């Protein structure tokens, strides 16, 4: 039975002793879309996902997954869950494990095809404990999607993967969405969220601090970026730019200029740098990225 929303969370609260990990969270994930949940370490992402998966119970609020309570046994065959680690017997062989998982579903995907898609065919007879971290990660992804679920939860699906494996995982996520499957993923890779997601939710300190499509969050404004020696006089550079412009050094040696970005601004900046004997590198015009938005919302300090 289809529902208008894959996940609906209202006023969710989760506490661990005196620490409140999730604090009145409100969140909706639409059916048939990829929703990325972003946030710094300790923001409440994993607690929220584990409650949706039925592994933890909330201390307050309501959660509905495909219209049901996450603890409802009827949800199990309809969900795919990829954990960050664990859940696979160390001695089981990769191909054997995937075939075992497939037997729990009425119409599973072909295990051999999934192994091939994720570059695991030659490791099908390798025990799980002897797989590399990236190979274990890919096997967990295969196990999460083999049952043709309606909704898939992916917690850091590409953590530790090399570029080739990462793109293979992206292809799987894109294929799920094209097939009408709802996907909820957490990731620290901002480019991954920007590329894959239809909707992005940024949470911090257990609450939503921003949400929208990647384009809505990043905006349409363009930026001029370049690298040069640290400590340029940004105020002096601003004096040469049109009124309404903004300039900052962030991080050290990296400069961002906003405003009426176009040929005239580009010429002004290059002329100023030449007059100041500043050698620039990687001078380019681009749109604000999701990483820029994330850092503006959550800060740059380590958690």
From TrEMBL:
Protein name (Swiss-Prot/TrEMBL): ABC transporter ATP-binding protein
The keyword ATP-binding is assigned to this record: yes
Organism: Sphaerimonospora cavernae
UniProt domain ABC transporter: residue ranges: 7-230
Subcellular localization: Cell membrane
Top-level taxon of the source organism: Bacteria
InterPro entries, alphabetized: AAA+_ATPase, ABC_transporter-like_ATP-bd, ABC_transporter-like_CS, ABC_transporter_ATP-binding, P-loop_NTPase
Record PANTHER family: ABC TRANSPORTER ATP-BINDING PROTEIN (PTHR42711)
Listed Gene3D superfamilies: P-loop containing nucleotide triphosphate hydrolases
Topology term for the membrane: Peripheral membrane protein
Recorded GO MF terms: ATP binding
Alphabetical UniProt keywords: Antibiotic resistance, ATP-binding, Nucleotide-binding, Transport
Record's keyword annotation contains Protein biosynthesis: no
Coiled coil stretches, renumbered: none
